Predict the 3D structure of the following.
Amino acid sequence: MTANSTHVLVVAELERGQVKGATLAAVACAQQIAQKTGGRFDILALGHETSSVGDALGKYGAGRVYLADSSDLKNPQADKASQVITQVAKTAGATVVIAASSTFSKDILPRVAAQLDAGMLTDVLSVTAEGNDWTLQRALFAGNVIATVALDGPVKVFTVRASAFAAPSPSSTASPVASVELNSAGQPNQIKFVSCDEKPSGRPDATEARIVVSGGRALKNSEDFERLIGGLADVLGAAVGSSRALVDAGITPNALQIGQTGKVVAPELYMALGMSGAIQHLAGMKDSKRIVAVNTDPEAPIFEVADYGLVGDVYQVVPELIQKLK
Amino acid sequence: MKFLVPLKRVFDPDTRIRLKADGSGVETDGVKYAINPFDAIALEEALRARDLHGSGEVVVVSIGSTDSQEQLRAGLAMGADRALLVRHEAEIDSLAVAKILAAVYKKEQPNLVLMGKQAIDDDSNQVGQMLAGLLGIGQATFISKLTLPADANEATCCRETDAGLEIVNVTLPAVITADLRLNEPRYVTALGIMKAKKKPLEELTPADLGVDATSRVRTLKLGLAPKRSAGIRVQSVDELLQKLRAETLIP
Ligand SMILES: Cc1cc2nc3c(=O)[nH]c(=O)nc-3n(C[C@H](O)[C@H](O)[C@H](O)COP(=O)(O)OP(=O)(O)OC[C@H]3O[C@@H](n4cnc5c(N)ncnc54)[C@H](O)[C@@H]3O)c2cc1C
């Protein structure tokens, strides 16, 4: 296989009709691969009423932007979405299919990999591509071990960790936009969307914010969480996050969970307030540029990773922070 | 209903991970093993559904060396009816695991595959979705609630997504993957362990199932992730603010 036959297909993720920021990390990865291998990349977005998305995605040097637009794809489910992605990957001759890591891509891409008979990696941190010899890095054991692996086979599928690839700047060129022919008669129909309780909070998403203010079990109820963690986040224009303990207790919604089994973030500043620093939580935030920890227990493990540690009670420290930052 | 529940043998979640001195792999000496926590949750859910329905069968399956018998016996002690061990010692990736499970599925014909959303060792979060893709059946991933009447031809699932809680109806048969908040698995009792000894545990190989278990993922090297070193302790909120401002992290 000649090196320049590398052809990456990036699957974009949309949220309320807009491209999610993390998608650009996958685009950055595709640009890197295309450059190193002399190959090229395309972008595919699935959704309903996606026309404005074509322009937004066309600014990064993709050979083509594919839009799969259908009311069936409004809240894309894995059965239909994977079929569309597989179809586009096959027709376009993609040798690599990637997306930014999220519950969207983790739900759908493994299914695509199975349909393409391709090996897959989750949450890739870096890619070294030389011709068909590829090595990739990813984390194992809640982020404690970094594995360097080879991914064999004619087609490769992986998700990339958004914080590991800096978003590219848009250019003035525009990629051609192609709409994907969808044959709704041949679509699977095994998964039916009923509802989603998504509540736009007005705050940035933790995976995209410069600052994340995160609370742990020290917060006794959702009113306190909102007043202290939410209040501090708002004076800083920050996102909020939480440990699993608060989600389990019903104090915060699952979408806020940071960690091995929640979101992985790497902001400029992560404020860990009233949480112990369990390895499963660290897996989701230890690559943050700066970490602040506030905890009443001077021995709490979170202090082992904190750049600035303050032994204190969040019920005193946080109101003081809010007041002094106002 | 018949449930198929895959169980993976993993390190206990509290294990402090060390590498072998020669860097050839993760140190396994003195390590305690457990059923992958997400798989235990999936098994608990299957057991509850079977018991609520008043009939049905729960079959647990593991892929690995004979050591995995320990986790299968633990699954039987929790209440599963029967166990299958597909013996395979070499490195194996998610796709090969899914191919083996697809072959087991065809042999067993369950109404539902209930499995963990990810294994806490490789954190891949792929096998359930791949299995559903290979079989061309429906899937519901990362679920925190399952509604499954005994005579149902679909399951109602609450999924934990990045955006929030999503409800979907999935046609049976299907693959459903469990998130942490689905339930709290029961503890194994002495009686359960006694009973488990008499339950069937069948062994087979990928070749018996006609599956080529070659892994497309090959581990070349393992290294410990760079450790963060602890920074400094500040004595007051003012000192903290001053440090953060000095780095222009906050206004
Ligand atoms: C398979 C698996 C997956 C997991 N995935 C995740 C995950 O994705 N994310 C995650 O977060 N966890 C995860 N966990 C759970 C994790 O192991 C911990 O149980 C959890 O992170 C603890 O949350 P916490 O730090 O808020 O609570 P605790 O560990 O209870 O810590 C509370 C801390 O608050 C301090 N404190 C108490 N009161 C105050 C006060 N007034 N002011 C200041 N400090 C105070 C205490 O000293 C203590 O250090 C997972 C566990 C397992 C087994």
User: Anything to note?
Assistant: Residues 21 and 220 of chain B are 16 Å apart (CA to CA). Chain B touches chain A through 81 residues (CB under 8 Å). The first strand of chain B starts at residue 2 and ends at 6.
